[in-house]
Structures are given as structure tokens and as C-alpha cells.
Amino acid sequence: MTFWSRTARISVCLALLMMVMAILVEITPLGENKWMRVFFGISALNFTLRAAIPLVLGALSGILCERSGIINIGIEGMMLAGAFAGFVAKSSTNDWPLYASLLFSVLVALGVGGLMGLLHGLFSIRFRMDQIISGTVIIILAAGLSSYLYDRDAISAGKFTPIPIPLLSEIPVIGPVLFNNAPITYVALVMVFVVHVAIFYTRWGLRTRAVGEHPRAADTEGINVNRQRYVNTMLGGMLAGLAGGFLVLEAVGQFQEGMTAGRGFISLAAMIFGNWTPIGALGAATLFGYTQALQNEFLLAGVTTIPRQFVSMLPYIVTIVAVSGLVGRVRPPAAIGKPYDTEGSK
Question: Which helix (H) or strand (E) holds 163?
Fold first, then answer.
């Protein structure tokens, strides 16, 4: 499996094309065209990035789990649990200094996401449950608990605000989009490259890929296969929890029941479209985020008379088309979904 697949190249090229078009719209007479501003205006790009961040974190969560051989369709549940935990922590510490409260809430979201990852690991590794069913249990558990425990009178006061990076934020078009964001957005973008380097250029990444491709061979080399899978599943859960924290603590500022709205499943599509690679997933998440931005821009600009319910279907339609029609040649890790027993345990 190459880390720079065909689909990854396509999605990254589309992302770069969007950026070039945005620059042309901003500095040339193309910007006078209403449709061009809808498709490539700075507003569309800003919304694309905001929509892509939870998808990026969710896709990274899936990559960490599935590269080690554990299927993780429970990203939606881990994300929702992280969002709810972040909300509870924030609303409980509203009287703290704002950033102390927000940072504490992020840590809580990370911790709860990690616990959900550990639970998925226990079901999948210790109890050898079918990993699809285990992921489904995680989703149902998070949806049920967050709905049951949600206090509608609770208020989360305040959220992360943009922190412009000096000089870089003043670059036309690119600066306002990439270098004038809140902290979790910066962390998510950095994590793409951190996870990429960790998986492909470190000893830990080599072990992760080994247990995901050929656990028996990894075991004979002295690698503790199941421990590696536990660690990866927990780290994946933490990233999904951070995605949920992003929704509450940076994007929306409040919790709503079912607020992840299928983002975990779209993250899975981004992971597959990106061929289980962080940079490929970033490009795919940007593509899916762009479709969400378009539905927003269409409705705000009033350039179409199509009912909004149909316009809102756009991201999901693109996700289905992308996964079903464009990723036929990608290959998952060979040992994915297969529980492993050491030689001595048989």
C-alpha cells in the first residue's frame, strides 16, 4: 500500500485548484461574477476548512485504528462522546478563566474519546467481538448516554476564538483561510503531518503497519500485537474525541443532541478515499468539506430555487459517489478485522 495513492493525488490536486481559483477570484475581474464568488470566494474556503477539520480528525482516528488491524466504524460515537464530555466540562467550569476552562474541556474530550477507544479495543481484542458490531455498540452507547444525560438548561459560555499568526495571516487569500484560525484547527492540521511522519518514518509506525498487515510475522519479531492495537485504538479514540471537542468548543459553542450528524461516517469515507494515508485523508476531507461549504453558500447567496432539503443532501451524495465509484483500487490493511492470538494462547 503506497502512502501517496491515486485518489490522494486527485483530492489534493482538487484542494490546490480551489485555492488557485480563490486567488484568481480575489485579484481579477472574475470576482464580479456571483457564481464564481459562490464557488471560490474566501467565504466558501473558510467554511470548507471549518467543515473539514472534524472530518480530518475523524479520518486520522480511523487510520490509526485500521492501520493496526482494528476496524473502527465507531468514530461517530467517539466523536459524539467527546463533544458531550467537552460540553459538560465547559458548562461545569464556566466560572473559571475562559482559556483554562476551554483547555480543561479539551482534555476531558480527549480523555473520554480515549476511553471509548479503549472500550472498542476491549470488545474487539479481549472479547473478540465482531469489530463492526463493536463499533455499532460504541455509536449507540454514545448516542443513548448523551441524549439521556443532556441537560437542556446547561450553557457553555464562550469558545475558542481565532488567533492570527503574525505576518502569515496577512498573505492575501491564503492568510485569512489558513493562518487566522482557532487553536484546535491549527492542531488538527499539524496532526496530519505528525501522524504521517509517525506512521511512515518511525519505529512505532513500522510496528503499527506490521501488525495491520501481517500480525504473525510481527509477533515472531517480538512485537506485542494486541498491545500495539490497544494503544492505536486509544489514540484513535482521542483524536475522534478531539473532533467532537472541536464542534462544541470551537465551531458551535454549544452541544446539541446528535450534533455530529454523520461526520464520523464521512470521516470513514475520507479515510478510504485517501487510501488510509493522513495526507490523502486531508485532501478527501477538504473535498467533502467543500461540498458542505457549497450547500451553505448556495443557500446564503440565493442563487438557486432548489429546495434546501435537496441542497443539504449534496455532501452525502458526493460521499456516496466518491466511495462507491472512485476508490475501487484502494486496498485496506491485510489483517484488518481479524482478531489475533499469540502462539502461546492457542
Answer: strand 163-164
- pTM attached to this predicted model: 0.92
**% helix, strand, coil for the chain, step of 5:** 75, 0, 25
* DSSP summary character for residue 337: T
Question: For residue range 124-151, what is the model confidence (pLDDT) as tens digits?
Answer: 999 999 999 999 999 999 999 999 999 9
For residues 172 and 174, what is the distance between their CA atoms, to the nearest angstrom?
Answer: 6
Are 8 and 277 within 8 A, CB to CB?
A: yes
Residue 271 CA to residue 332 CA, distance in Å, equals 10
| DSSP conformational letter for 262 | T
What pLDDT is recorded for position 325? 61
Q: Sign of the C-alpha dihedral, residues 83, 86, 89, 95?
A: negative
pLDDT average, residue stretch 14-30: 79
CA angle (160, 165, 166) in 5-degree steps: 140
Q: State how far the Cα of 145 lies from the Cα of 169, in Å rounded to an integer.
A: 41
CA dihedral 82, 87, 92, 96 (to 10 degrees): 100
Question: Exposure string (b/e) for 195-226, b if CB count within 10 Å is 16 or more?
Answer: bbebbeeeeebebbbbbbbbbeebbeeebebb
Q: Going along 14-84, which residue ranges are E strands?
A: none
Q: How confident is the model at residue 191 (pLDDT cuts 50, 70, 90)?
A: very high
96 pLDDT exceeds 60?
yes
Query: Does the pLDDT value for residue 324 go beyond 90?
Result: no
Calculate the alpha carbon distances from 311 to 89, 294, 308, 328 in Å: 35, 9, 5, 27
Say whether pLDDT at 275 is over 90: no
Say if residue 286 is exposed, middle or buried (CB neighbours under 10 Å; 0-12, 13-18, 19+): buried
Q: 38 and 301 in contact (C-beta within 8 Å)? A: yes
Residue 345 vs residue 298, higher pLDDT: 298
